[in-house]
Amino acid sequence: MAGILFIISAPSGSGKSTLVSQLRTLVGGLEFSVSYTTRAPRGSEEDGREYHFTTRERFEAMIAGGEFLEWAEVFGNYYGTALSALAHAKDAGKDLLLDIDVQGAMQVMTKLPTAVSIFILPPSPKVLEMRLRNRSEAEKMTAEDVIQSRLAEAEHELKQIAKYRYALVNDVLDQAVAEMRAIVLWERGDGVGVQELAASCRTDAASERLRDALATFHVAL
Ligand code: ADP
Ligand code: 5GP
Q: Which of 101, 103, 135, 194 is 20 to 30 A from 16, comparing alpha carbons?
């Protein structure tokens, strides 16, 4: 099973972190790539756990040194996946999960076409806005312009959804977790009983659920 690269992208606030942390309690053998970023830590984040927090100068030196599989500028900060994360997961005999934005995902899909890409979307812009507001309240970060820029970015990112192999609508959390688990097991060739669920999440299956969620963002498949 070792060596599959899972790319997960989602508009900020879709519930990706929540989903991924639940997935990791259900499925073993998954390593989570800790990205480098120049943004400041939020809430209870710790250096080396959620991200490797670094400076723009050090990040740019890493770009110049060819140390990244991919990198992108998101909301005014650099984010990147170090090549060493791939080597580390491989040595540990694990699959690697990348939580990266759409720009980074396109770079990885080009460089490593066998990577399994999964897009997570919220059921509607209204729900996304509510989740962003709830989270920012919890983190005591309520700047209205931050919420508005994340909502606008979500619509922009959703336009790339057809380039992903799978898409999950994170409406009912337990269902989305079950779908993500089904995709991982199916892609590992370990998918007894999950084939149908995994297949229903393929973007080319264009399920009614996916089309309905996309329609609320005025995006068609
Ligand atoms: P992301 O990592 O995509 O930015 P988070 O995992 O931080 O998003 O989730 C954003 C907010 O939405 C959090 O407050 C989280 O508890 C909540 N949330 C996530 N998934 C669901 C869901 N299926 N139903 C309701 N709330 C959710
Ligand atoms: P946040 O600041 O909310 O943790 O993340 C903001 C965005 O950056 C999210 O869309 C997240 O997926 C993306 N991101 C996190 N790490 C990386 C990375 O290593 N590369 C790229 N391209 N995007 C990343």
A: 194
